[in-house]
Model the fold of this input.
Amino acid sequence: MPNPYISGTGFYLPPRIVTNDELSTYMDTSDEWIQERTGIKERHYVEKGEGPSDIAIPATKQALNAAGLKVSDIDFIIFATSTPDFYAPGSGCLLQEKMGFNEIGALDIRVQCSGFIYGLSIAEQYIRTGTFKNILLIGAEVQSTAMDLTNAGRDTAIIFGDGAGAAIISATDEDRGVLSTHMHSEGKYLKELWLESPASNAGYPRINKEALDEGKQFLKMNGKEVFRHAVTRFPEVINEALEANNLTSENIDLLIPHQANLRITQMVQKRLSLRNEQVFSNIHKYGNTTAATIPIALAEAFNEGKIKDGDLLVLAAFGSGFTWASAIMKW
Ligand SMILES: CC(C)(COP(=O)(O)OP(=O)(O)OC[C@H]1O[C@@H](n2cnc3c(N)ncnc32)[C@H](O)[C@@H]1OP(=O)(O)O)[C@@H](O)C(=O)NCCC(=O)NCCS
Done:
């Protein structure tokens, strides 16, 4: 049976940088408050007219280049985003058209912060069964347009940013690649981190002035509750992956956690007794880009020489749903 491995990675951040000081001009907050609570210094926002499928293009080109593959070599597209360009059709179809992929399947998945790992698990199955040889897996988000940049939304708006990451999942006969993936959900907490409108259950029409006046088009978060669950679920799902492979946290060469918040990452590191060099963090530069944080971090860590052949890599995510997931792989 072929093994699924990551043959190339890429990432892209839109050029516009939004600093904490800039946010402080829209709402009562400060650089000090944001850095102390989240570790974030700045994030990137797209310009009007740009969606996840647009910012996914440069990330995809880099990933293809790194893998030494052409657009025509890709057999399937998996596009993880919680902020699709349109309600319908999915961003995967848009990317297929914009980049001129063959008439291959394009699957959008909406699992928020866990999207990349859920996508990886789908790619894993198609590669192991021999169905596909090269799969493009994207995590791309435009969160900026779902932020309430006033005092009412300041607890959430300071956290999120836009960005895209891409990975090519390819088949190999070598002893490397994804060892296992693990996924969970707990829908009873859906309202702790959610975006309510537009909603097909909202009556006719789906979007109305009342909903807009209530700010239902903005992402809403109960920060304390999200924090509480995240610091439990991250270690749990990482240990699940380690145990499934008879490994311990000492075996981890690099943990790439979803970049939710620096304080969450630090707490996870402590709970698993990991050294600083075992944990990757870049949230200070990009904020939380939801499904894009892991592929961006993966590409950046690889480009910085922090991932070498044979390394044991663990990916882990927690977010809206709630959903949480992990993946373990030999690079
Ligand atoms: C969002 C988060 C930073 C808020 O920090 P917190 O310490 O829980 O802050 P609280 O919500 O208790 O608010 C404390 C005070 O700061 C205020 N506050 C909220 N946002 C603020 C901001 N951006 N700037 C300044 N003050 C702010 C609150 O209004 C509150 O004021 P009050 O005491 O007068 O009522 C924190 O809960 C968190 O990091 N949660 C996890 C979020 C996350 O990781 N999400 C992504 C998951 S994928």
The longest strand covers residues 3-12.
